Amino acid sequence: MAQQKKVAKKQVSVRKSVEQPISPAADVSKTPSRYINRDESWLLFNRRVLEEADDATNPLLERLKFLAITASNLDEFLEIRVAGILQQMEEDLGLPQKPDEGGLTSDARMDRLRDWLHRFATDQDQCWTERLAPALEAANIHLVKWKDMTEEDRLFAARFFHDQVDPLLTPVTLDPSHPFPRVLNKALCLALLLRHKRKNRVGVRSPKVLGVITIPRSLPDLVVLPERDGQRNYLLLDELIEAHSERMFRGYEVLGRAAFRVTRNSNLYMQEEEARSVLESVAAELHNRRKGDVVRMEIDATAADVIAERLRINFELEEWQVFRTQAPVNINRLMNLYKEIKTSDFKFPEFHGRRLQLGPKARDVFDELRKRDILLHHPYDSYNTVEAFIAAGTNDPRVISMKQTLYRTSADSSMFRALTEAAQSKDVTVVVELMARFDEASNIRWARELEDAGVQVFHGIYGLKTHCKLALLWRRDPDGVVRSYAHLGTGNYNPVTARFYTDISLLTARPELTEAMQRVFRYLTANWEASHETYRPLLVAPVTLADDMLALIAREEAHARKGHKAHIIAKMNALLDTKTIEALYSASQAGVEIDLIVRGMCALRPGVPGLSERIRVRSIIGRFLEHSRIFWFANGGHEEVYAGSADWMPRNLYERCEVVFPIVDENGKHRLRKEILETYLKDDVKARLMQPDGTYIRATGSGKRISAQDWFMEHATASDSGENRQEASDLPTALPAATEASPKRARS
């Protein structure tokens, strides 16, 4: 492949030492970069997830789940970010390379990432082989090897192979008439080193050749063996196929065998001028995704060198792109072990969020919303409330029209069913984002089915992902007045992920919000041009959001310079936008106290004297995926608080349609600040504090320790009505600032 040959010019040893991170005590304002590299920041985030797999205080199968998540995360990082860097290196070959925000060229970034990736893969291996696998054995949960199985289990597995596996397999022997098969992205395969048993006419043995078996994705990853004497035994499917591989290559001697898997470039590229429609263009590009260049090959650590080398040459990979693993190839499939074991002994206790209690005089949710806004914190407040709101639009004959955005949804989504049913009697408009990464195929299917049901389906503005979370209903109320009712959220309309993503929902009938939402829908369906003030009080990307956020930060800076109360608390998934970071640096230098709760990537350097000494950054990794985006501004004592779909990343601020909405209701503002944000800031169990060099250390505390997620669950369980909430001020005192924490560095 041309890409790999060109990249070869920059090849270095896998174990080449990387530039050491800057010491926490260093004055980063004097270093070449004011920012943390985004890719290394992401790898540190995935390492924090791996730490949860290593944390013995988590239930055993939950630890296994965290390990599987790190593998899934790493797949996406390689097929998008690393693939993108390799592409950039190919395009820049022979030309001056433009440094990124961190001052690194594509070559320099790749040099550093090679070592990071291999070290992380080694740590994943050790987590499995040294800690999780022995712990599973001790709990009588066994991933058995064929050679160690009883004769009874072998007979059971052999019958399964004969009945359900063998008919689907297509073994290929590589020779001039049988070229190397097209290996799909992330498909598990077996490679076999073969030699024909017959000698040629002069008595010379034939040369060694490769055989390949691609394991169909329709087959289960695990074979569940009969439970005996409390022993739960499971056989990986590739182990079963390996055990029967010789009969698939009759006439050949099997000299060696190994499982392998390749990860391909999965970026989608569309040519706007050639696209008949966005839907047709995305559908076509999904086929191209299967054909992307190989970025990584995982192979069993026991594979013979000749097998690994022949595969490497076939896929035109550099040596560093081959990852030998002592854990099962594709650790992500261990998630199936988590799903197969139904017992709760080794899992987090089951949790159900509290249901909404309507007021005593409210006949339905619409009555309630005419009296007050409803703020929900998922999953601690049940997502059933949002589902019921959309279902009410379908079932209530007074509702005459519905509009909604869909970014990701589940295979059996109640939202999808409600919208298709509503279209039989109401006007229903849905804006479907086709290019929600890795959900494109399902979204295309939903879009077509919605159209068939009579829903007006739009795909937003070409070139901008529709990432906002909006639902708007029009209802002719009993008094004859047509009113609008709305849901605005930070999370996807997906009841499945809503059980383990933390998000904020606002249900409201405020005319100023619903009328602004109507204008946003016109923007999405008609590319409606309007002034910045048109969408107020909503902050809408890419029209107003970036400037609005910078203005809110600048206002806090102005308050600080006047000696007024100035404080920012912002919670998000990622912080990468350099304009926003520079605004935060400036505000910090002016005296604004800034607390950032950033789950994943963070390019800002906190706690640097003279630059960001009043900025503290924490990341919380726990049972639930922190997904809510909340932005609180002290505003000199007249606080303002917002929530929405956007992170502080360039793609959210400039390349997507996002909506950030104000929380106007005083009870909602009070809850977000005093209960939710304060609790996150006092977490000293699952929180890590970011250091100036980009590494993280565990938060420490004294006395009663607080896990924010555990506290929210306990609080939700204890309160059905949501009234008389305990506030975070009743919790132990806040933690010291990150820059005051122990200088001990996070493990990297």
Major β-sheet, in short? 10 strands, mixed
- Count of discrete structural domains: 4
* Rough outline: globular
CATH topology of the largest domain: Endonuclease, Chain A
Q: How far do the termini sit from each other?
A: 34 Å
Rg calculated over all Cα atoms: 28 Å
Count of DSSP H/I helices: 19
Named at the architecture level, the CATH assignment of the largest domain is: 2-Layer Sandwich
Q: Which CATH class of the largest domain applies here?
A: Alpha Beta
Low-confidence segments, ≥5 residues, pLDDT <50?
1-32, 269-276, 286-290, 721-748
Helical residue percent band: 25-40%
Name the structural class: alpha/beta
Counted beta strands? 27
Beta-strand content bin: 15-25%
Assigned CATH superfamily of the largest domain: Endonuclease Chain A
Report the mean per-residue pLDDT as an integer: 85
Domain Polyphosphate kinase C-terminal: 364-527, 538-701
Domain Polyphosphate kinase N-terminal: 35-144
Binding site for Mg(2+): 408, 437
EC number: 2.7.4.1
Task: Characterise the protein shown here.
It catalyses: [phosphate](n) + ATP = [phosphate](n+1) + ADP. Belongs to the polyphosphate kinase 1 (PPK1) family. Its cofactor is Mg(2+). This is Polyphosphate kinase. The chain is an alpha/beta fold. The protein has four domains: about 30-140, Methane Monooxygenase Hydroxylase, Chain G, domain 1 (Up-down Bundle), CATH 1.20.58.310; about 145-340, polyphosphate kinase like (2-Layer Sandwich), CATH 3.30.1840; about 365-530, Endonuclease, Chain A (2-Layer Sandwich), CATH 3.30.870.10; about 535-740, Endonuclease Chain A (Endonuclease, Chain A). The chain is built from 19 helices and 27 strands. Strands 14, 18, 19, 20, 21, 23, 24, 25, 26 and 27 form a ten-stranded mixed β-sheet that branches. Strands 10, 11, 12, 13, 15, 16, 17 and 22 form an eight-stranded mixed β-sheet that branches. A hairpin with a 5-residue loop joins strand 26 and strand 27.
